UniProtKB/TrEMBL annotation, chains A, B:
Domain HTH hxlR-type span(s) in chain numbering: 20-118
SUPFAM superfamilies assigned to the protein according to its UniProt record, in alphabetical order: Winged helix' DNA-binding domain
Organism: Nocardioides plantarum
InterPro entries attached to this UniProt entry: HTH_HxlR, WH-like_DNA-bd_sf, WH_DNA-bd_sf
Keywords of the record: DNA-binding, Transcription, Transcription regulation
Keyword DNA-binding attributed: yes
Name this polypeptide is given: Winged helix-turn-helix transcriptional regulator
Signal peptide: none
Entry keyword annotation includes Transcription: yes
A Pfam family hit: HxlR
Length: 120, 120
């Protein structure tokens, strides 16, 4: 899908208004850790400890809260296996995969331009 | 550019590591207000007061800090005109326009799916 820059503002006034659904969801997916957690899960199903190692610097509390938000949003599916010790894993739902697909150009752009921006 | 989901993690390990340039820039552009300020400027040059009205709920302090970060990153250009009363406006640089272009699929996705996610 192609959206021109000029039309972004006119077509999507809702993202600017506090409390509108678009703004709420945008806050979730662009939270400090949200993008990183979603991108980590793009590689496939991960267990809690794997996610923590993958997303360097995230606290237990912040990872738990980010995952709870994404579960409630229907973006991440949590599966608990009745094993000893208990095993829990996390994967993207089809909706979550779709979101990561939409996020990929941004992540790719940031990776490509970060050096230039930080050193500039 | 097409990037498969599976390759996202393998190709971009840097975005996950604290202090790496990609992570720093990702934090800037996905800050609570960063996306909204950039998207607002996608429509064209705006003055301070116009930006504040556009991005509903942003405080003076947060708008100032967000704009300073983007100026330092080379994403936003600030121009002060020697008039009385003083006039200052803000516009995207070519690099900033390029970033917003990369961000557009995400914003479009969020606008399209927000109702479903929030009510789900």
């Amino acid at each position: 899908m192609t959206v021109s820059l000029g039309s972004l503002r006119a077509d999507r006034p809702d993202i600017y208004v506090t409390g509108c659904p678009s703004r709420v969801v945008l806050d979730h997916v662009t939270s400090k850790w949200g993008v990183l957690v979603l991108a980590a899960l793009a590689g496939g199903t991960l267990r809690w400890g794997e996610l923590r190692r993958e997303v360097d610097g995230i606290s237990e509390k912040m990872l738990a809260s980010t995952l709870r938000t994404f579960e409630a949003d229907g973006l991440v599916q949590r599966t608990a296996y009745p094993e000893v010790p208990p095993r829990v894993d996390y994967r993207l739902t089809p909706l979550g995969r779709d979101l990561v697909e939409a996020m990929t150009p941004l992540i790719t752009w940031v990776a490509a331009h970060a050096e230039e921006i930080v050193s500039g």
